[in-house]
Amino acid sequence: MGWVGDQIDSIKSIQFRQLISQAISLGMIVTSALIIWKGLMCVTGSESPVVVVLSGSMEPGFKRGDILFLHMNKDPIRAGEIVVFNVDGREIPIVHRVIKVHEREDSGEVDVLTKGDNNFGDDRLLYATGQMWLNRHHIMGRAVGFLPYVGWVTIIMTEKPIIKYILIGALGLLVLTSKE
Amino acid sequence: MHSFGYRINALLTFSVTILALMCAIASFSDNFNSPSPSSEVQVMKINWFQKKPDGDDEVSLTLNISANLQSLFTWNTKQVFVFLAAEYQTPKNVLNQISLWDGIIPAKEHASFKIQATNKYRFTDQGSNLRGKEFNLTLHWHVMPKTGKMFADKLVMPGYHLPKAYR
């Protein structure tokens, strides 16, 4: 318990000047995280540049807990690409593969049909009632990169909020009690 | 300075950095692979060809697909997703892509194959333009890495025709 005792001692010995410098360093950490996130949004052109895979519908390619990096640009959508889309009336975006594309001559608008690699049928059952195709505005981005397992951190934190609070508390304590 | 917490922190930071670096290098090493896949597809049979009640043309095909995709595999390859799409142009649409068959190749040993398949997804047009239509069959592949950047490419095989009349 020597470590905890040390930490408590160092909290007791906090002085006003030190407190301010620690508050600033905490602020620096939070703002730099925010800068990185917003910077990624600018670079990738997608409003959520990183998504965590939540279901097993793309197994064995993507498993639950994997992280995908998204990219969005003006390039036309083509069959085979893995896109992240939002269906009206559904909150959670879905990551699936495009299997059919019909691109209009005049307007350039596309009709897209998707399917999960591990699902038996296509996604018409997941779309809003009566919706046959996805259009450009449903699509948030296409997956370009992949990192396994890292997303488990967020899945655990959303499903067990207590762990999130413990983690944030411990980190805060560490920052407050650290001496340069 | 050398407390327990600091050592844990330093160790954790260092190992995460090394891991991230290794992932980046593994992904980068994929760039040195220059694959040369080959494929051949024959339309064996038109099972049926009709105009559906809603006015769209639909056709059912039996295909003979052979391909060798072994050169796509590197040490950072988890799987290769391969699919065959019919691609054609109609007066209304500049591009129609319809996936007819797909498969997941989990390992290099399975990457050279020859199969016969009827189309897995419905070959339906948006409209009634399929009679006598010339179309390409394109073999697309998506390489899913163990970590890092995904790769995709295709092989276009032109010059296929649908029959001039429904059957």
UniProtKB/TrEMBL annotation, chain A:
<dbReference type="GO" id="GO:0006465">
    <property type="term" value="P:signal peptide processing"/>
</dbReference>
<feature type="transmembrane region" description="Helical">
    <location>
        <begin position="162"/>
        <end position="178"/>
    </location>
</feature>
<dbReference type="InterPro" id="IPR036286">
    <property type="entry name" value="LexA/Signal_pep-like_sf"/>
</dbReference>
<feature type="transmembrane region" description="Helical">
    <location>
        <begin position="19"/>
        <end position="37"/>
    </location>
</feature>
<dbReference type="GO" id="GO:0004252">
    <property type="term" value="F:serine-type endopeptidase activity"/>
</dbReference>
<keyword id="KW-1133">Transmembrane helix</keyword>
<feature type="domain" description="Peptidase S24/S26A/S26B/S26C">
    <location>
        <begin position="37"/>
        <end position="102"/>
    </location>
</feature>
<dbReference type="InterPro" id="IPR019533">
    <property type="entry name" value="Peptidase_S26"/>
</dbReference>
<comment type="similarity">
    <text>Belongs to the peptidase S26B family.</text>
</comment>
<dbReference type="GO" id="GO:0009003">
    <property type="term" value="F:signal peptidase activity"/>
</dbReference>
<dbReference type="GO" id="GO:0005787">
    <property type="term" value="C:signal peptidase complex"/>
</dbReference>
<keyword id="KW-0378">Hydrolase</keyword>
<keyword id="KW-0472">Membrane</keyword>
<dbReference type="InterPro" id="IPR001733">
    <property type="entry name" value="Peptidase_S26B"/>
</dbReference>
<keyword id="KW-0645">Protease</keyword>
<feature type="transmembrane region" description="Helical">
    <location>
        <begin position="139"/>
        <end position="156"/>
    </location>
</feature>
<dbReference type="Pfam" id="PF00717">
    <property type="entry name" value="Peptidase_S24"/>
</dbReference>
<comment type="function">
    <text>Catalytic component of the signal peptidase complex (SPC) which catalyzes the cleavage of N-terminal signal sequences from nascent proteins as they are translocated into the lumen of the endoplasmic reticulum. Specifically cleaves N-terminal signal peptides that contain a hydrophobic alpha-helix (h-region) shorter than 18-20 amino acids.</text>
</comment>
<protein>
    <recommendedName>
        <fullName>Signal peptidase complex catalytic subunit SEC11</fullName>
        <ecNumber>3.4.21.89</ecNumber>
    </recommendedName>
</protein>
<dbReference type="InterPro" id="IPR015927">
    <property type="entry name" value="Peptidase_S24_S26A/B/C"/>
</dbReference>
<keyword id="KW-0735">Signal-anchor</keyword>
<keyword id="KW-0812">Transmembrane</keyword>
From TrEMBL, chain B:
<protein>
    <recommendedName>
        <fullName>Signal peptidase complex subunit 3</fullName>
    </recommendedName>
</protein>
<keyword id="KW-0645">Protease</keyword>
<keyword id="KW-0378">Hydrolase</keyword>
<comment type="similarity">
    <text>Belongs to the SPCS3 family.</text>
</comment>
<keyword id="KW-0472">Membrane</keyword>
<dbReference type="GO" id="GO:0045047">
    <property type="term" value="P:protein targeting to ER"/>
</dbReference>
<feature type="signal peptide">
    <location>
        <begin position="1"/>
        <end position="26"/>
    </location>
</feature>
<dbReference type="GO" id="GO:0005787">
    <property type="term" value="C:signal peptidase complex"/>
</dbReference>
<dbReference type="GO" id="GO:0008233">
    <property type="term" value="F:peptidase activity"/>
</dbReference>
<keyword id="KW-1133">Transmembrane helix</keyword>
<keyword id="KW-0732">Signal</keyword>
<comment type="function">
    <text>Essential component of the signal peptidase complex (SPC) which catalyzes the cleavage of N-terminal signal sequences from nascent proteins as they are translocated into the lumen of the endoplasmic reticulum. Essential for the SPC catalytic activity, possibly by stabilizing and positioning the active center of the complex close to the lumenal surface.</text>
</comment>
<keyword id="KW-0735">Signal-anchor</keyword>
<dbReference type="InterPro" id="IPR007653">
    <property type="entry name" value="SPC3"/>
</dbReference>
<keyword id="KW-0256">Endoplasmic reticulum</keyword>
<dbReference type="Pfam" id="PF04573">
    <property type="entry name" value="SPC22"/>
</dbReference>
<dbReference type="GO" id="GO:0006465">
    <property type="term" value="P:signal peptide processing"/>
</dbReference>
<keyword id="KW-0812">Transmembrane</keyword>
